[in-house]
Amino acid sequence: MDNRPPPPQSLLDSIPQTGSLHRREPAPVHLWNPPLSGELDMRITRDGTWYYQGGPIERKALAQLFSGILRLDEDGRYYLVTPVERWAIQVDDAPFVATNLNIEGEGQLQRLRFTTSLGDEFEAGTEHPITLKCDPDSGEPAPYILVRANLQALIHRNVFYQLVDLAVAHEQNGHSALGVWSNGQFFPMDGGAEAR
User: Which InterPro entries does this UniProt record tie to the protein (predicted)?
Assistant: First the structure.
């Protein structure tokens, strides 16, 4: 008699429900192109909370694991992707939230290091630009930073206030812009110009 458990039928079945999960580097999801497996009852809310079947995912390590196989495709939809599966999920705004900011140096030599609620760390610069969009309904500014590929993090309001406190005037494209420096790049905070 074979007492081995049956092989997993989906990516959710393959994830241990108890015990420890170890954080890994994001998977090379850009290399995988499996067929669509369906819609997964999973949602990431604007505050960065992951939900599965209506309830929050309590284990941070599990949300980290899922975030490592997350991809935003050209159709504007988010998917959890493995070499053999691609599940559509719902994302209310951005899949990550930048909740912490560390500042090193000052002026044009300043480095702004962000940490997301899931523990991703990166410095604003060429590979991780800061952008500012306006909410079409309220007109309120909403700042974002690129985490990886085309996945953005909404910059938490408290962190945005820190950026506003750091903002300086800089002549850009013939106009004075208010913004912040990181890794030698200037990021406008008024939404009116591109970083340089």
Answer: DUF1285, DUF1285_beta_roll_sf, DUF1285_C, DUF1285_N
Tokens of 56: 């929050």
pTM score:
0.84
One-character DSSP codes across the chain: ---SPPPPSSTTTTS-SSS-----PPP-GGG--PPP-EEEEEEE-TTS-EEETTEE---HHHHHHHHTTEEE-TTS-EEEE-SS-EEEEEESS-SEEEEEEEEES-GGG-EEEEEETT--EEESSSSS-EEEEE-TTT--EEEEEEEETTEEEEEPHHHHHHHHHH-EEEEETTEEEEEEEETTEEEESSSSS---
Domains of the chain: 29-91 (3.10.540.10), 96-188 (2.30.270.10)
